[in-house]
Amino acid sequence: MKNSYTQKEQYYGDYLGLDKVLDAQFPESEARGVDAHDEMLFIIIHQAYELWFKQIMHELDSIINIFQSETINDNSASLQIAVHRTNRIVEIWKLLVAQIDVLETMTPMDFLDFRDLLAPASGFQSVQFRKLETKLGLKMQNRHEKRYYEHQLRPEHVSGIQELEGERSLIQLLEQWLERIPIWGAEYWTDFETPKDADPEVHPFWASYRHTFESGLLSAELAAISMADFDNLLLGKGEKTTRLSPASLQAALFITLYRDYPLMQMPYQLLSKWLEIDELMANWRYRHMSMVRRMIGMRVGTGGSSGANYLKGAMEKHHIFGDVTRITTYLIPRAKLPKLPSILEEKLRFTI
User: Fold this and answer.
1) What does the entry list as the binding residues for substrate (predicted)?
2) Which pLDDT score, from 0 to 100, does residue 352 have?
3) Does the annotation place 46 within a ligand binding site?
């Protein structure tokens, strides 16, 4: 059957909806007859943020969809796509951080020209950003000053965020993916040497690795680094103090240590990019906090939050991938890495 679809002739402005986009700025100062030139900059900067948040959500949803699969081939096109789109999110976050430079061309006096006209609106009320945090894995119970959410957001927006919490977040899916990485089977470790005093209840690799790590600590580090924390984080001994499981953190550390093997390179890129995003988001919050302090000092935010103090608390508490960052404490030099069994080495190489 012949395709009857006729392609519509496109016109630049129509295709991009520029009539709507460019007519979506309504400075309150103009409506009230107040001279506040920089309000237009303030509006456009924040509208641009929302557009980029929408693009990040578009990329994130596709990545989440990939990791919802029950089986993921770490050498497959789908994982390569996930890495590619994660890298795009990295570049967008770099742009979002840099965009603050433009906003900072506005002086505190420029901001005061229209600040009082904004209340009680606040960047805190960015529903897209709150949903983005939720999709990444930030739960309402772990948010800084969570009482603000009930007072500052509309009920339907709070409900939408809570509904998203019922879905599997990216951090949960990455945990599931890491736990499934098949490298710990007994068939791979039959000829692996372990220290004589190794704990028989601990996997041979981790018994050996623990010994190598501890013996390589400097005297000053011995006082600062508790091996009980190593046991808790990676071996699951003691009360759980992490969001991610010991099995997933073992896989994350193994990937980081042996990333030079071909089949570890793509998983390593994925993990390192999400750590970079976590860092960029913290940097964005820090830049925002510093700018707020410069603009309004210690005054409260237009939405009623504690202003810069709220932003400081969120920056410190809202890390999504903090558990993965913690494992860098337990890295050792390449020269000291335990030699992997030959059968596992072959598995981690590309086959021809």
Assistant:
1) 42-46, 115, 302
2) 47
3) yes
